[in-house]
Amino acid sequence: MHRFYVTADQIKGDMISITGSDVNHIKNVLRMNQGEELIICDGQGKDCYCIINRVSEGEITAKLLSMQETDTELKTKITLYQGLPKKDKMELIIQKSVELGVYEIVPVMTRRVIVKLEDKKKEEKKLERWQAIAESAAKQSGRGVIPTVRPIISYSEAIRECGNRELGLIPYENAGGILYTREIMNQLREYSSIGVFIGPEGGFEEAEIELAGKNNIHPITLGKRILRTETAGLAILSMMMLSLEEDS
């Protein structure tokens, strides 16, 4: 069944309004008509099973038949603190992280970040682009929540913020002991919120790892190979997804 997303103000009682580009997609691409069924997600974890009530030029209204919690969300909320990479790597990271179940993504300026976003308008445009990628990936993967890509923050701000998470992890090439990583992965279901730090192309400086450790963020290894920034986050999220996924 086809899935579409709306905001809370588009749901009024048992009637839901679909506007914007989705109207054209439903009418002219899918060629759906009155009486056909579809799923409308509120973007906050609830799926509304609906039947199309009316199709007009700029709006489609649907009648709510039933509502239930989306079964595609991990119960543990994962925040990815991603060291800002070069070029369009962030787009790939966002897309795949959303597919793997991340709850939110926070771009972070670490000491070895090469990219400099001094123009506020350019930063805002990037954030708009990144959020659109997150929304598209959420739709493609059947997510019940559209993860938020938040504004860029400093590394020290990210460390302080992660203090509000129940667990903090920071993959680091000099961390030893894959057994410790396995132990951590086996305990993930004990936590409702987890922060994961990934460095940029140049990795983390030792002082940054020390600061993380002092703030109860645990350095872990992802194996003996050094992974690129666009690979490391996806590797740990894949490990976490396997541990956190609920049985059918």
Question: What are its keywords?
Answer:
seven-stranded parallel β-sheet, Alpha/beta knot, 27% strand, Ribosomal Protein L25, Chain P
Helices and strands, in order, run as EEEHEEEEHEHEEHEHEHEH
Principal-axis shape: elongated
Going by CATH, what is the homologous superfamily of the largest domain?
SPOUT methyltransferase, trefoil knot domain
Structural class assignment: alpha/beta
| Helical amount | 25-40%
Give the CATH level 1 class of the largest domain: Alpha Beta
How many E-type strands?
13
Largest sheet: 7 strands, parallel
CATH fold description of the largest domain: Alpha/beta knot
How many domains is the backbone divided into? 2
At CATH level 2, the architecture of the largest domain is: 3-Layer(aba) Sandwich
What gyration radius follows from the Cα positions, in whole Å?
20 Å
Strand content: 25-35%
Outline the fold blueprint:
Blueprint (H helix, E strand, L loop, with lengths): L2 E3 L5 E2 L2 E4 L2 H9 L7 E5 L4 E10 L4 E10 L7 E7 L5 H11 L4 E6 L10 H21 L7 E2 L3 E2 H8 L4 E5 L6 H9 L6 E6 L7 H9 L2 E4 L8 H16 L4
Describe it for me?
The chain has 248 residues and is of the alpha/beta class. The protein folds into 2 domains: 3-69, Hypothetical PUA domain-like, domain 1 (Ribosomal Protein L25, Chain P), CATH 2.40.240; 77-244, Alpha/beta knot (3-Layer(aba) Sandwich), CATH 3.40.1280. 33% of the residues lie in helices and 27% in strands. The protein has helices spanning 21-29, 89-99, 120-140, 155-162, 178-186, 206-214, 229-244; strands at 3-5, 11-12, 15-18, 37-41, 46-55, 60-69, 77-83, 104-109, 148-149, 153-154, 167-171, 193-198, 217-220. Strands 7, 8, 9, 10, 11, 12 and 13 form a 7-stranded parallel beta sheet that branches. It has a 6-stranded mixed beta sheet with strand order 1-4-5-6-3-2, covered by helices on one side. A hairpin with a 4-residue loop joins strand 4 (37-41) and strand 5 (46-55). The longest helix is centred in the middle third of the chain and has 21 residues, at 120-140. The relative contact order is 0.15.
